Amino acid sequence: MADVILHDHPEFRERYYEIRREGPPVIYLIPKKRATFYAVLRVGIGSYDRSYRDGEKIRPILAGTAHFLEHKLFANPDGSDAMERLSDLGADANAYTTGTSTCYLFNCRENFGESLKELLTFVSEPYFTRENVEMEKKIILQEAAMYGDSPSSRLFVASIRRLYRDHPIRDEIVGTPASIRAITPSRLYGVYRAFYHTGNMQLFVAGDLTPEDVLTSLSDVSMPSREGEFRVAPVAESGRVCKTVRTFRRRVSKPLFNVATAFPERYEDTQDRQRRMLALGIVSAHLFSDSGTLYGELKDKGLVTNPLRWMTEWNPGVCFLSVSGESSEPRKVYELIRERIRSLIDNGISDEDFSRLCRAHYAENVSSFDDAEELVGAFCDAMPDWEDPYVEASLFETLSTDYVNGVLRELFSPDRLNLTVVMPDSENQNETEDEE
Amino acid sequence: MIQIKTLTLCPGVLLDYVPTEDYKNAAFAVGFKYKIRRGRSAADAMLSRLLFRSSRDYPTHTLFSRRMEELYSTSLSLQSSRYGDFRAATFQATFLDEPYVHGIPSFTREVLATVAGAILRPALDQNGKFPIDVIEQEKTTLLDQIKAIRNNKNAYAMTRLIEITADPDRYDVPDYGTVEEVEQITAEFLWRRYREMLYRSEIRFVYEGSLKPEEIAHLIGELFGEILTERRPLAGKNCLPRRAPHRPVLRVREETDGKQAMLGLSYRLPVGFTEPGAEILTVLSAVLSDAPMALLFSEVREKNGFCYSIHSSLRSSNRNLVIMCGIAPDSELDVERAVSRVLSTVRTGKTDPALVRAALAYIKMSVASVFESVDATVGYVLFRRLFNRTVDFDKLFERWEKITSDDLAAFMKKIRPDAVYLLSPEGGGQNG
């Protein structure tokens, strides 16, 4: 027996099914008339999880463990690799880790049922040995070196570290060389048992399927379940303001800069939080996108050439904005950003700008519903506490210029921006690095 | 796989219409194919950027960007690439389809009008040419882009490998040109090249969305009428000719910072993308690196742990197969040997038939995935039409499915090593 709930969104001509049954995790089926199928198993463990409850004890999790598990779970006890088995079925498999999730996925044109069964089976059968863990360390150390050699990646990490003193976001998803080397099979098994169970998973499926198709595929799949508390939430931080500029050197053609600010996490309920996030997106676009006057001014003054890149994140314990770009004069860009924020707080966003940006953001949301991977990704990001992407799109109607200006004035301050810079290693050899 | 209806807009100018169902998005693209000029790649790359940043009606980039937001975040993309004797400049708009737009009647017409305005009525100065200050700004942007390649080790290593294996007599230059070419760009040349692109090129249009074919044909006639003049196919080849017999393998080593080295291995191919028999390239690429558990991934990464990322790519600009990977600085010989084992496996006909089947399944799925994206479909169809490549994928699948391990072996025997490029950290770096 299964409970099948239909969530219908006729305004977008979209619908999805929520399927609950004893055995597999909660299943979200998004019917799409496509020739291919796509499935993602999301596990609620990511790089922000740095400890877990084991009975009365709190056990630490080394940085990079969630990511290591993601790599290693493809190994099967019989020596085969799950990716190879999926490949034999005609499926293309992959996996990724974020701050809050680890996702195992595949897409295929045929043998969907068998591939889905294989996905849930290999995730349920961990196999870690000293030999296969040591081999994986070599690969992951190369991955860490690849990110370490990327100036933009180093810049972002440095910027976040200045923003947050203790939160696990300070560590990269892959971990550090030291933490990677310290991982052992027993540590992996401990974390696996704590987090990999159906109560901490969701399964997302998109394609030309019915709930019966999916349930039939999983009729004899057995997955681990667990009772009791296991999660230890990271402590929320409101973020630091650093009065000095952090500068370091790499082999880059032009200075790279990052301006970041953290926001306090204040909200009444899930929908309120989501509305605030949408408002934050509109304010950020007004400030930093190509259509904003800041970019035009920076370009006319010769301070930047390429558009600014910006992103916001709101996850347990962290809420921040990060803006980056290239400029020969990063401090001037920083001062102009501060000035622009000050001016926007004083004058507010106009009705015309709000309307245009709201329309653009709404359209980007709706456009993404065509892409099964992007849509499922949005569902994964929404887990466990956010509204689904269709509800999010409909929340735009509830926003107003006054509401967005209220969020702007509550969250933004020109005095709470950190600047971090990567200078070319060929320039200003005598300049010392500022440290806070 | 997809049904395309082709309409003639005027002699030599065609519209490919792709019917859609169940999508929120629509897409429209126009492509120009014109003769390449030696040493002018930078000007061609800049021309496309100049056209899609503003227009007479929206004369600054800010105003133009705002117009895109008003049009429900219509996304514009452009590409300027060379294939053999030709440059292909494509301009594409992806936008919400009519049923999902509120408050703008004839929305598709508004989008196409904005695209047509950008291409046909650019923002000009009082002399009727591209403004000098805008050209200088875009020159700086292009120079920054060229120089910034060094920020990304993988991209830099690939660029250097192409440069060292390039044959200057055959116009082998990067798509966006060199620093010297950028500095030589003049407003007069850009204007001449623009006129050449509009009036002496082959043109093709592609649309996918909910409007009917005749409606789109009518809109194109109304909005792009001034360039709907008779066009004939241009003489020239879509692919560089085969090169002279090979020289000794080049080995180049350069230094960088950081911890990881980049190793690039280049091999000469006997056939180019657009030549008869080229379908084997797709299967070879899948077997080597694209498909799950492909040979390079299995041997170099999974079995030996030599790298995190290894991939192969086929470079049409110089008819080479390139294998690139990030490795520990002291392991290049081990990795070269591992790659050599992989290529020997293929050359001796020992590619596992299961892998060939998996590669074919992967190719089919990749093509099917392209056609599940309106944006990707339009770009893909436009490119293939401009270069006379088939869009009959059922026939193409039939040809792919006939390829066996023995065919791959025979083909691999004709591939010759060309160059080895190593970008290594100073002082050997440290492995983690």
Q: Which stretches of chain B are poorly predicted, pLDDT < 50 over at least 5 residues?
A: none
The CATH topology of the largest domain in chain A is given as Cytochrome Bc1 Complex, Chain A, domain 1
Query: Rough shape of chain B?
Result: globular
The N- to C-terminal Cα distance of chain B equals 48 Å
Question: Beta-strand level of the residues of chain A, as a percent range?
Answer: 15-25%
CATH homology group of the largest domain in chain A: Metalloenzyme, LuxS/M16 peptidase-like
Uncertain residue ranges of chain A: 429-436
Oligomer: heterodimer
What do these coordinates show?
The complex is a heterodimer of chains A (436) and B (432). By secondary structure, chain A is α+β, with helices and mostly antiparallel strands. Chain A is 40% helix and 21% strand. Chain A has two domains: 2-217, Metalloenzyme, LuxS/M16 peptidase-like (Cytochrome Bc1 Complex, Chain A, domain 1, 2-Layer Sandwich), CATH 3.30.830; 246-424, Cytochrome Bc1 Complex, Chain A, domain 1. Chain A has 15 helices and 14 strands. In chain A, the strands form three sheets. In chain A, strands 1-2-3-9-4-8-7 form a seven-stranded mixed beta sheet, with helices on both faces. The model of chain A is unreliable at 429-436 (pLDDT under 50). Chain B has helices at residues 41-51, 61-70, 107-120, 132-147, 153-165, 179-183, 187-199, 213-223, 279-290, 295-303, 332-347, 353-370, 374-386, 393-401, 405-412, and strands spanning 5-10, 13-19, 25-35, 75-83, 86-96, 202-209, 250-256, 261-268, 307-315, 320-327, 416-425. The termini of chain B are far apart. Chain B is globular and about 60 Å long. Chain B is α+β, with helices and mostly antiparallel strands and 432 residues long. The chains are: A alpha+beta (436), B alpha+beta (432). Chains A and B meet through helix 2, helix 4, helix 6, helix 10 and helix 12 of A and helix 2, helix 4, strand 9 and helix 12 of B.
